[in-house]
Amino acid sequence: MPAEPATGRETVRPGRRRGPTETRPLILKAARELFAEKGFDGVSLRAIARAAGVDPALVHHFFDGKEALFVEAMEFPIDPALLLPRILGGPREEIGERLVRVFLGVWSHPEMRPRLVAIVRSAATSERGAAMLREFMTTALVGRVADALEVPRLHITAAAGQMIGLVMMRYVIGIEPLVNASDEEIVALVGPTIQRYLG
Amino acid sequence: MPAEPATGRETVRPGRRRGPTETRPLILKAARELFAEKGFDGVSLRAIARAAGVDPALVHHFFDGKEALFVEAMEFPIDPALLLPRILGGPREEIGERLVRVFLGVWSHPEMRPRLVAIVRSAATSERGAAMLREFMTTALVGRVADALEVPRLHITAAAGQMIGLVMMRYVIGIEPLVNASDEEIVALVGPTIQRYLG
User: Fold this and answer.
1) CATH number belonging to domain B80-198
2) Minimum CA–CA partner of B192 in chain A
3) Cys-Cys crosslink for B194: which of A97, B72, B91, B96, Cβ 3.0 to 4.6 Å?
């Protein structure tokens, strides 16, 4: 941020030392750029600290590890570490229904939906947006679900494709009768698909 | 197109009467704008002719009906009127496999793919792009498939969602192992999903 010209009106001006309100966004910005460029595995917290020009201890102070930093850098409105247990827990024979229901619940939230649409849009249009979502899905979703359920990763990507395509059709393109169908109609229709991939 | 200043070099200059190379794009441009604004059903060939400033007979001369004009205005690289019979014909119990195989075949074509990706991108980012794809899917796909197969439209949109999401994951976001899976692996995995929706 370039310094504003002094107007003579300020009584106190901060010096060059950065406060927390400045440091945190600096770290997030550096993280966003490095993750998009090098992928999740190719970036260390130390490298992010260096790019942000801050002490590595500060990165640890503000963020609870690399994945938490990644999720926040993605501006993903929900932490999958909190969401996935709700899907992965419970009877395995109902995982398809459960996943579709939880997923649609998140998308129907009026504050979440615009942010989720923004993520899909950005992935569809910019290579950086695609890289971020690719990293996010690979790291926070595909790997974790594969470990928990012991199903092939290809199955998980097919399930993720069904869910992403569903919200594209319902919320981005807006095709009837999907727009006006109830969540439970969609759960009944698409749940068995996800069950087949993940059950 | 603004007239170029005369340089004195031309021996023949066309008058104000438009030749076919000028009329056709004018009609397409008007069609694109009207379809995006009012949807397929809300636009007549006569209204397109009026917006383009040409005689309605010329629209009929250049385009084989409203749907053909729509498909061309969409710049969709394949006419679904040609593609759908390959999917809808043949044994009903294999329609899922057949759809996935034909669809992936089109996407794997090196000249088609960038144009298809462009359509998905434009639908994800601009309201006009979304409106065009929405109209296209509703008119050229959902309605036609519903008539041919007598399955509920909601099933068709779920199938379309699976296929759009699959290509988003494979070609736009680029998630492994979907990127490097063979077409036949994907047919075996996703074919039964489509079969369940459309069979």
Assistant:
1) 1.10.357.10
2) A193
3) B96
